[in-house]
Amino acid sequence: MPWHGEFMKVFEVCELIENIAPLSLAESWDNVGLLLGSYNADVKGVVIAVDLTDNVIDDSIAKNCNMIITHHPAVFEPLHSLKENDYVSSLLMKCIKNNINVYSAHTNMDMSEMGINFEMANKLGIVPQRFLSDGLGVVGYYNGNLDKILLKICKITNEDTPKVYYPKNAEKAIKNIVAFISGSGGRIEEVISRSVELGVTAVISSEFKHNIILELLAKNIAVIQIGHFESEVIFVDIIYNLLKNIINNLNKYVNFN
Fold it and tell me: In this structure, which of 35, 77, 84, 118 has its CB flanked by the most CB atoms within 10 Å?
C-alpha cells in the first residue's frame, strides 16, 4: 500500500533502490547515489527519468515533486564552481532553488541481476543465463528468430527502425543465443571475444563502433543496433514498479529530453 501518514525520507527511498542495485556494484569511475539534497528530507513526490534535464526539472516542479531519480548521473567530474552559463551547473542550481533532491543509479543498475540488462532480457523473451562478462550485459536463450525479437524491441522501446546487420551467408536461426548490453555496449571491444566464447548468435546494444560490427559479422554473429536512450528507458519502469506501492505522487518521464 502507498505510504501513509508521514512522508518517506530521502534516505529510505535510497535504501529501497540500493537493495536491488547496491552502490558497491558501480564502476569505480561512476558517480552514483544521492548527488544533491538531504538524506533527511521528506519526499513529497518523485519523478523518474533517464537523464536530468530542464524539462524533467520543470515536470517535477509542476507535479510538486521534490525528488528526481535518474539513470545517468548529471555530475561525473568534480565541479569547481556553479555558473548559470554552464549546462550542468544550471541544472543543479535550478534543483537547489526548488529544493529538489537528485539521486542516480547508473552502472550499479546495469550490473544488478534486478537491473536494466536482466529486466530488458526478460521483456524481450530472452532467458537470462549469465552476464556477458563481469557485470557487462546479459546472455541468454531466445526461442525464436530475430524478426520476432525486433518486433518486441520496437514495442518496448518505441523505436521504429532498429538497425539490423546479418552475416552475409547466415541462415535465420529458429533458436538463438542473444547478448543484450544496455547503453554504449557497442563500443566495448570485449563484446567480440566474449560473444564468440559463449556461442552468441546475435548482439543487441547501441553506439556500435564500425570495426566491432564488421568483426561480429565476420564471426557469424548478427548485430541489432538500437538507440542509447532506448536501450535504457526501461530503467524508469524498474524504479516505478519498485516504489509504486509506497509513494503516492510517483511519476514517469520517458521523453528523450
Answer: 118
pTM: 0.94
pLDDT digits (tens, 9 = 90+) for 140-186: 999 988 888 999 999 998 888 899 999 987 666 667 999 999 999 99
CA dihedral 158, 19, 43, 37 (to 10 degrees): -90
Check: CB of residue 173 under 8 Å from CB of residue 200.
Answer: no
Residues forming beta bridges with residue 164, ordered by sequence position = 224
Q: In order of start, what are the domains of the chain with their CATH numbers?
A: 10-108+233-252 (3.40.1390.30), 116-226 (3.40.1390.30)
227 close to 159: Cβ distance less than 8 angstroms: yes
Q: Of 207, 184, 202, which is closest to residue 148 (Cα–Cα)? A: 202
- Contact partners, residue 107, CB within 8 Å, separation at least 6: 25, 26, 27, 30, 32, 135
Q: Nearest 5°: phi and psi at 9?
A: -95, 155
Contact 140/177 with Cβ under 8 angstroms? yes
Q: Are 160 and 192 in contact (CB under 8 A)?
A: no
Pair type for strands 46-49 and 250-252: parallel
Distance from C-alpha of 216 to C-alpha of 54, rounded to nearest angstrom: 39
Element spanning 130, H or E: strand 127-130
The answer to whether 247 and 64 are in contact (CB under 8 A) is no
CB atoms within 10 A of CB 172: 11
CA-CA distance, 1 to 244, in Å (whole number)? 9
